[in-house]
Amino acid sequence: MRELVHPSSYVHPNAKLEENVEIGPFCIIHENVILKKGCKVDAYCELGVKTPLSNGSPLVIGENSIIRSHAVFYESSHFGDKLVTGHRVSVRENTFAGKNLQIGTLSDLQGDTMIGDYVRFHSNVHIGKRCTIGNFVWIFPYVVLTNDPHPPSNILRGVTVNDFAVIATMSVILPGVTIGEGALVAAHSAVKSDVEPEMVYSGSPAIKICPAGKIKLQDGTRRPAYPWNKHFFRGYPVEVIDEWNSNHE
Amino acid sequence: MRELVHPSSYVHPNAKLEENVEIGPFCIIHENVILKKGCKVDAYCELGVKTPLSNGSPLVIGENSIIRSHAVFYESSHFGDKLVTGHRVSVRENTFAGKNLQIGTLSDLQGDTMIGDYVRFHSNVHIGKRCTIGNFVWIFPYVVLTNDPHPPSNILRGVTVNDFAVIATMSVILPGVTIGEGALVAAHSAVKSDVEPEMVYSGSPAIKICPAGKIKLQDGTRRPAYPWNKHFFRGYPVEVIDEWNSNHE
Amino acid sequence: MRELVHPSSYVHPNAKLEENVEIGPFCIIHENVILKKGCKVDAYCELGVKTPLSNGSPLVIGENSIIRSHAVFYESSHFGDKLVTGHRVSVRENTFAGKNLQIGTLSDLQGDTMIGDYVRFHSNVHIGKRCTIGNFVWIFPYVVLTNDPHPPSNILRGVTVNDFAVIATMSVILPGVTIGEGALVAAHSAVKSDVEPEMVYSGSPAIKICPAGKIKLQDGTRRPAYPWNKHFFRGYPVEVIDEWNSNHE
Questions:
Q1: CATH class for domain B10-212?
Q2: Burial call B193-226: b when 16+ CB within 10 Å, e when fewer
Q3: pTM
Q4: Between 2.160.10.10, 3.40.50.300, 2.60.40.3140, 2.60.40.10, what CATH number should domain C10-216 receive?
């Protein structure tokens, strides 16, 4: 099933491409890679880069994923079905993600990270090593999750982001911080201590502002803007939306 | 006129390359692209990426433009003459820009954006959808123009930046904000409400500091540093500078 | 000694590749380049880009360096031995660096810069023109060193960072500022005036907080975290560590 590989690309004979995998021009697919059926890899991507920091396991990309151009993925990471990336993403070893992760253009995942289902990273997100990210999390452009409490050192304390939390543009989350479920970190914040669930934090250092539900939708209805999954459904499958709706009753 | 295409590149036979267009190595020029005369496209660029979000119109690059290496441009955008880009720029559909736009290395234009003439984006600028940018605007590194007042949601309120405004390094402009003509947003600011013309704003949240004309040039003359077009002319054509000088009289 | 050049790559016949230089797929090595022995250049790199701003001297990469994929280096820069880069780094002309510089993924060095020995730039660091960086400096992700005191203008005042200084994530250093030896700039700071040696600065604008030595290592010992070279040795050669230890006595 190699007829969908562009003739300018190099695919190692041991790489495992399932049916209907498409590989665009100028790609390099190394040996230790499994691309499940229906994956589409655009131009200039290099998948399965070898590293001494890997455990030897392959890079696995789930079914029907789309990897846009100029991506670099190392070996020893695992993505569920329907991964979607923007351009120029970098993903290091030991990144384990559930289904339908979206990684925006220029994002940089440093590896040693656990990521749940249906997570969205917008453009230019930096995820330091040892972070743990729940389900349905949103992280917006130029957000950095850090890990070293007194750089440089050998102590790495990753950030934990719980389900449905939202981190807005250009915020820094300091090492070891936990962002509570459904919380909102406002744009341009520096978060130095834990964030309570369903609360808004803002500032540098970020302080608690109000319950997230106090923010009103600017759509004329003045319904609460949070929890966001009461009004925002784009890109989620019907079964997920149905479950959300049943929980809200 | 395809003799200036590097033999390693792929140019779709329907792409329209006017005279003296040069295409460097390892490029991909898709079908729905018009490169006007004298354009130079460096290595590893992909132009005219298809998207269901396009209206079917081509990517048009004006005369004598320079697109540096590793760029990604989608179809359905239009640039005036003398576009100049740095490396690794990403430009999505429905971006409409006047003449002599400069887009710095790593900048990411998300599309659905109107941009005037002679605009300068420095490195690593992020322009969210639905922004409107005037003429002679300057935007410096790591600035983000946002658009969603309560992310994630379906409400998009772009930022408006008026003529001659300057946004300095690592500032975030919140959704729906208007930056007045000739205003200066200082570095590392978070702008949450409208900025008056010809004023300096700074801080997080940004507040009004003083008239921009109060900032003195550090060149020994102590002339006002703003309006900047009284002393800074590099890269503008003679007819523009002449017009500026006549307006200043 | 061209047998280690991937057949898909273009190496100008005048480029000087010393013994055991390896060039990965889809690379472009221009004429004005010297790669010293043992260098390894990964895929999609373009080295020696011509520019009218160069002085005509070659790009020189020291022995046993590793340049990871998608890099762009201009001519007229010089790197000591054991340069190591991440992916997608951009380095402009007239950058002069000592030995064992590390440049993280997505970093953007604008040129006209002096850099000492054993400097570490993490991911996505932006070094404006005219900066001067000492030895053993650490700069973390999304830090920007600026240079124009009233942008846009013709006055460029670079930043100076002295030996052993550390600049943490997403800080901006304003033009002309000097960061003292062994100082620490905390994350998400905007530094507008000089930083004293061995002090911690934080905030926007950054203010002096305390001596760096007051920060304790979170490893159970509660030893001081600074100077960091009393406890952090990873990646430095034995002779350097020996010298540090003898100085500490």
A1: mainly beta
A2: eebebbbbbbbbebeeeebbbebebbeeeeebbb
A3: 0.97
A4: 2.160.10.10
